[in-house]
Amino acid sequence: xxxxxxxxxxxxxxxxxxxxxxxxxxxxxxxxxxxxxxxxxxxxxxxxxxxxxxxxxxxxxxxxxxxxxxxxxxxxxxxxxxxxxxxxxxxxxxxxxxxxxxxxxxxxxxxxxxxxxxxxxxxxxxxxxxxxxxxxxxxxxxxxxxxxxxxxxxxxxxxxxxxxxxxxxxxxxxxxxxxxxxxxxxxxxxxxxxxxxxxxxxxxxxxxxxxxxxxxxxxxxxxxxxxxxxxxxxxxxxxxxxxxxxxxxxxxxxxxxxxxxxxxxxxxxxxxxxxxxxxxxxxxxxxxxxxxxxxxxxxxxxxxxxxxxxxxxxxxxxxxxxxxxxxxxxxxxxxxxxxxxxxxxxxxxxxxxxxxxxxxxxxxxxxxxxxxxxxxxxxxxxxx
Length: 384
Ligand code: V1S
Ligand code: CA
Ligand code: ZN
Known about the structure:
Layout (H helix, E strand, L loop, with lengths): L1 H10 L3 E2 L3 H8 L7 H11 L7 E2 L7 H4 L5 H8 L5 H6 L12 H20 L5 E4 L20 H9 L6 E5 L6 H6 L6 E8 L23 E6 L5 H19 L3 E5 L17 H12 L5 E4 L6 H15 L4 H5 L9 H4 L12 H5 L9 H15 L5
Helix pairs in contact: 2-3, 3-12, 7-8, 10-16, 11-12
The structure holds ligand V1S, calcium ion and zinc ion.
């Protein structure tokens, strides 16, 4: 649609969610304490936010949460004083314990993604980023895997009001189980997840054989990967499988979940991706020039996650790889954030985050060919 592109080039600014309150609230949760605030302050100190329009976040209402979540779950997550039995039933224990401010947190995570989705739909932006979002395990009636609300499903549902066909790409280390399940029967949302797949590895779903159901047949694409998945394999799989689906499906909009737990330095120690390896995926997706929503996700090495999302934010602002690698750690970061870079000698880029670690990539040519041939066959059955 040319009129859309004209607007984009005139405005020339992608949108981004940076919000002092959201950053504080989204930083307070148990699994990634302090991460959102670190990402925001790095972006601001590097002045990358200046290439963007900052988007006001409207916290989601209970009614908006109920477009996906059950009334029972929304009540449990928003109201205090639930019984142990209810908390257990709603998954609000173990991986997802309740914490002070959970109600505000849930509303802001969902609200930030919904605000980005609406901003995209206004037609003023081709791409919006919400690093606070990407909670892909949240189930209709239960919290799961550090996800108390599924902003991804809510965002896609919102975007569906305007975009006929949405392609969801999930490069987080974990399977995007709840997003895939929500759209299992739909041909209007194509869910592609790259994930580590092994016995006992969370969440345990995402087998190659699962490909959608009923009208949604072939609209679920699982790419289960082995240990040591590195930049070269990522490039190959992106080109042969992800782009293959994109070309065949011709989506009207794209949602990219850029979890950083596949980085070589993540505490999961499963994959061997570098910051530019992952960040350059964003450039490829942005080059499709479709309305694109970019979300965060996992990432447990907070400084390297902040580096990768900084790299990706710079990519979306049009910077080349060389320009990004010339960026230096800003000295005007607050003391609290600056000290987190101490072990790396206060540098933004280092050998490990630029190149990964020495690790065998168990995704050998034979295994990748098997994945590729299965997906090529299914891609052939997809109709645009
Ligand atoms: N992998 C993993 C992992 N680690 C933990 C964990 C570690 C320390 C704690 F104090 C509490 C929990 N839980 C898990 C996984 C959930 C991973 C979620 C990933 C989220 C994302 O990166 O995709 C971003 C949205 N949970 C499990 O493995 C489940 C258990 C099976 C083991 C852990 N116990 C606490 C619950 C049950
Ligand atoms: Ca994934
Ligand atoms: Zn993950």
